[in-house]
Q: What sequence folds into this?
């Protein structure tokens, strides 16, 4: 299918309104939250009241009735003003999408209104210490015990667990017919006995913290399984739909990570352009010199190209073309991460020594920009995906 490359009037209006909100908070607000060890609750709450947090969720459950196209615009504009909300990637984009597409009616009623209005948050737990990017090596298991499920395992680098009401945990259950393990998703509420969390010390400066999770005989009711608790569930949910549910969440995660990176790259580039336009060492501002101007122009071009692929991926996903969306979402995440790293690096270089000062606030982005290269999947694994799935080349693993 073809994807529009020119945004609609509604999308431009959404960008403008989110940008106006974000500018009222700005990088100073974000940096103060990090320095003081607090969360960006004020911005989250106001964005929720304006309907931005749940813009992708179904209207019948309190959302905006849009899709990942709209939610990615929200995150990009917040990031472009220097105050991105990482939990947008996790709570409405991954968890909200999975529950909206595959949850039971009771699960939708219980969670979607709160995710849409920001009053509830949900984290997402997939990464494990020994599995890395290989989802087939996930060792968190769920076994049936009467009418309950019992989960055991560990997760690492799980964002925002301390502020989430529940975590959507990816585990594996045994297929009664084959004996093989297959993925399933469970809603684990924060205070469930046996569900522990431990903060991971990070060099990354962000309001959202990273955690290691432990699941020690975590007992859950049957209805904690996304889509229902019967073994005869259809492709819409339950035990037999775990793989579909997983990828329904991972593709939006990649699109939103791309939007996160685009916002960061735009913020850094804007700071560098402003500096190059006004900083005067000789007769003309330094931006008049091609050695300064051309790398900034190249960074802008790379960000715009990455934005086009991000828009394509979001449109494909919202149109229900999961196969094409998977390819495009991985490409978008790769392109946006590379563009953001380059833009941040060039911005710091443009400012010289000032680029490393707290006053200008760009140095912290050197670390932050690399997150998009690493998470939720490394650029090398994306290159593997494209070489195998798109180009048809053989695997080495």
A:
């Amino acid at each position: 299918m073809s994807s529009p490359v020119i945004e609609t009037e509604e999308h431009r209006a959404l960008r403008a309104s989110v940008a106006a909100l974000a500018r009222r908070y700005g990088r100073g607000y974000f940096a103060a939250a990090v320095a003081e060890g607090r969360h960006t609750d004020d911005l989250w709450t106001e964005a929720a009241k304006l309907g931005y947090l749940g813009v992708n969720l179904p209207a019948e459950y309190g959302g905006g009735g849009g899709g990942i196209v709209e939610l990615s615009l929200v995150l990009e504009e917040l990031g472009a003003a220097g105050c991105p909300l990482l939990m947008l990637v996790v709570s409405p984009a991954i968890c909200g999408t999975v529950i909206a597409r595959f949850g039971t009616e009771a699960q939708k009623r219980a969670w979607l209104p709160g995710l849409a209005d920001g009053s509830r948050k949900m984290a997402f737990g997939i990464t494990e210490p020994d599995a890395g990017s290989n989802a087939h090596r996930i060792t968190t298991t769920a076994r049936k015990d009467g009418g309950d499920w019992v989960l055991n395992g560990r997760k690492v680098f799980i964002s925002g667990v301390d502020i989430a009401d529940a975590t959507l945990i990816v585990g594996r259950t045994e297929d009664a017919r084959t004996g093989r393990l297959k993925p399933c998703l469970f809603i684990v509420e924060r205070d469930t006995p046996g569900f522990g969390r431990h903060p991971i010390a990070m060099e990354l400066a962000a309001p959202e913290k990273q955690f290691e999770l432990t699941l020690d005989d975590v007992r859950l009711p049957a209805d904690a399984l996304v889509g229902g608790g019967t073994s005869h569930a259809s492709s819409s949910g339950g035990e037999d739909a775990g793989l579909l549910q997983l990828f329904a969440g991972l593709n939006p995660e990649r699109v939103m990570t791309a939007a996160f990176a685009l916002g960061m790259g735009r913020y850094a580039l804007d700071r560098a352009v402003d500096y190059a336009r006004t900083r005067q060492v000789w007769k003309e501002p330094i931006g008049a010199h091609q050695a300064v101007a051309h790398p900034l122009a190249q960074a802008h071009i790379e960000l715009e190209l990455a934005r086009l692929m991000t828009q394509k991926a979001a449109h494909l996903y919202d149109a229900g073309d999961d196969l094409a969306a998977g390819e495009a979402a991985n490409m978008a995440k790769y392109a946006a991460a590379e563009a953001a790293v380059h833009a941040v690096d060039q911005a710091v270089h443009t400012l010289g020594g000032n680029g490393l000062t707290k006053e200008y606030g760009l140095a912290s982005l050197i670390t932050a920009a690399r997150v998009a290269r690493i998470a939720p999947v490394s650029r090398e694994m994306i290159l593997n995906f494209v070489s195998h799935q798109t180009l048809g080349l053989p695997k080495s693993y």
